[in-house]
């Protein structure tokens, strides 16, 4: 292999995406290979990745609004003449880098969870035409979303690495023989211990993460924010712990800082709540999370940072990935996840937190004994890649 192409990357102000790039390159440990990163937000990756990696940045071109290419593409689709014109323009620089000496890793593990990812289907067809080996890297897919079109695309991959057993079982049941089960690569992410902000007490601070995404999936309008408000007040009233509000995604359209700032404004005068700012990279955020007593989080890779550093964690989830990862670590998702769709009463989150707190010692002990081997399994992804005849 002369070239490595990491594609379907959304941008590093989603620090889960940043964590996947960093941990992927750590696992593969490649030398004398040109590494290209196909990204939707190049400037973010220049800010968070370029200082540590020599990456050839390739940006997906955007044709928005009434751009002629977008309008022409819409016309062709309506006439049933072509489904791919827009993709061929937006991905031209990416497709041009491919040849038979290129290994292509689809690193957006969630991308098959948000509608039909025909733009990725197109990339995969082009990679196959050019003789590239392709890997669907660290993925989760809702079993109910697997239709004939998606299955045809999944069969096209040289290798699929499912990051949790619910997805893996769905692949097996659909007859896929090119899949293996290994932990999310971000379990291997390095931890960087930055200076703690004033008020953050290592070992006696409870980490809090909430996202606009889970708020969009709530069953009752406003229930998520009200539940977090009640939880924070409960912790202030019943413990001596500090609370750290920790963002993990900071995109304009999906920004954890928006709900976290609302929470901070309510409780800032208590002296018990700290807001971590949005300028840290994923390793530094993992460093803050690693020094928490407990963690209540919505973003998958924030909770992975907690799990991997043996911090007892409650996941406020909405998708198969949260359930599957918890199931693989604990044997059951019960008591470790609270699906946001089932959040109907404002005291449910308090009850789930109380259960987590009561089991803190047992959970920490389980994670301490379980994680070394589990994290070790994530490195086996590199071995599977080498079995493709690529080194």
UniProtKB/TrEMBL annotation:
The keyword DNA-binding does not apply. Signal peptide: none annotated. It comes from the Bacteria. One of its GO terms (molecular function) is transferase activity. Residues 14-319 form the Polysaccharide pyruvyl transferase domain. Keywords: Transferase. Coiled coil: none annotated. Pfam families: PS_pyruv_trans. PANTHER family: COLANIC ACID BIOSYNTHESIS PROTEIN WCAK (PTHR36836:SF1). This is Polysaccharide pyruvyl transferase WcaK-like protein. It comes from Ruminiclostridium sufflavum DSM 19573. The lineage of its organism: Bacteria, Bacillati, Bacillota, Clostridia, Eubacteriales.
């Amino acid at each position: 292999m002369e070239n490595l192409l990491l594609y379907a990357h959304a941008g590093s102000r989603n620090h889960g995406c940043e964590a996947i790039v960093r941990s992927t390159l750590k696992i593969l440990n490649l030398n004398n290979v040109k590494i290209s990163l196909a990204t939707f937000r190049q400037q973010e990756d220049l800010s968070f990745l370029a200082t540590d990696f020599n990456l050839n940045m390739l940006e997906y071109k955007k044709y928005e609004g009434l751009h002629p290419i977008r309008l022409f593409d819409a016309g062709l689709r309506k006439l049933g003449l072509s489904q791919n014109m827009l993709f061929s323009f937006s991905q031209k620089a990416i497709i041009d880098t491919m040849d038979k000496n290129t290994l292509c890793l689809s690193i957006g593990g969630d991308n098959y969870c948000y509608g039909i990812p025909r733009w990725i289907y197109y990339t995969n067809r082009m990679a196959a035409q050019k003789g590239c080996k392709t890997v669907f890297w660290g993925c989760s897919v809702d079993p109910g979303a697997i239709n004939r079109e998606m299955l045809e695309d999944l069969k096209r991959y040289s290798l699929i690495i499912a990051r949790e057993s619910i997805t893996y079982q769905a692949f097996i049941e659909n007859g896929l023989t090119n899949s293996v089960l290994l932990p999310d690569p971000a379990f291997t992410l390095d931890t960087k211990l930055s200076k703690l902000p004033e008020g953050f007490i290592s070992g006696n601070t409870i980490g809090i993460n909430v996202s606009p995404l889970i708020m969009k999936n709530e069953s009752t309008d406003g229930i998520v924010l009200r539940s977090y408000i009640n939880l924070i007040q409960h912790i202030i009233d019943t413990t001596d712990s500090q609370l750290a509000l920790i963002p993990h995604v900071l995109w304009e359209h999906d920004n954890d800082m928006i709900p976290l700032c609302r929470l901070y404004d309510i409780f800032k005068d208590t002296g018990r709540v700290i807001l971590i700012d949005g300028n840290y990279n994923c390793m530094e955020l993992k460093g803050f999370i690693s020094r928490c007593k407990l963690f209540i989080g919505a973003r998958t890779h924030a909770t992975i940072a907690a799990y991997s550093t043996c911090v007892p964690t409650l996941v406020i989830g909405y998708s198969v990935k949260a359930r599957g990862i918890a199931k693989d670590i604990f044997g059951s998702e019960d008591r470790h996840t609270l699906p946001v769709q089932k959040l109907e009463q404002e005291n449910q989150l308090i009850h789930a937190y109380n259960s987590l707190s009561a089991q803190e010692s047992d959970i920490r002990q389980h994670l301490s004994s379980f994680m070394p081997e589990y994290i070790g399994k994530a490195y086996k992804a590199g071995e599977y890649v080498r079995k493709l005849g690529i080194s």
